[in-house]
Fold this sequence. Notes:
This protein folds into two domains: about 1-115 and about 150-165, Peroxisomal Thiolase, Chain A, domain 1; about 175-215, no CATH class.
Amino acid sequence: HLLMACVQALQHAAITPSADGPRIGLIASCGETTYFQQMLRETAAGDLPDGFQMALHHDKDFLATKAAYHLNLTGPAMSVQAACGSSLIGVHLASAMLRQGDSDVMLAAGVLIDPTLTDGYRHRSQHIFSSDGLCRPFSDDASGTIGASGYGVVALKPLARARADGDRIYALVEASALNNDGRDKMSYTAPSVAGQSSVIREALAKAGLTGADIGYI
């Protein structure tokens, strides 16, 4: 799924990887590989490939570099794994690499395909999953999150280059910021109001904007 999504993103952006073309990089992240776990449980040990081959095809460390190999991408390629923040952190890092001149084009990608989601889940108190199977972001009635499968890839360029190339520009990254909330929260998996508000203020300051300029969260 990730490989084909990268192909589609490049095609949509009219970019063809080539030796004399732009340096294209990739930052990618993925969720838990439940399919692989199921395969391990259901396959006899003697029928499994050796450990190196299994790691090469299923370990998250190889997600970005393997896609870059198949697509002949010669810019920076790395996996970023930070749970729910992975994909947006990828955009943050990819944007920084473009500003530093490490690459001409960056793909930021995230994927989670979980065939077990159709089985539902057992609700447990103090866990992150919703008690009623519904997700209500920013609501007083929110009781947790729910799982989903999906993938996405965005192609990023410096604004001047995108304009010079005549690209269709869907959005502009004015600024981004990154932090961690340490222990200032109820538990390890709980969000921190102080941590989130701090990084939002930092991003707004970098962009020269205020909260009044924000129309969508």
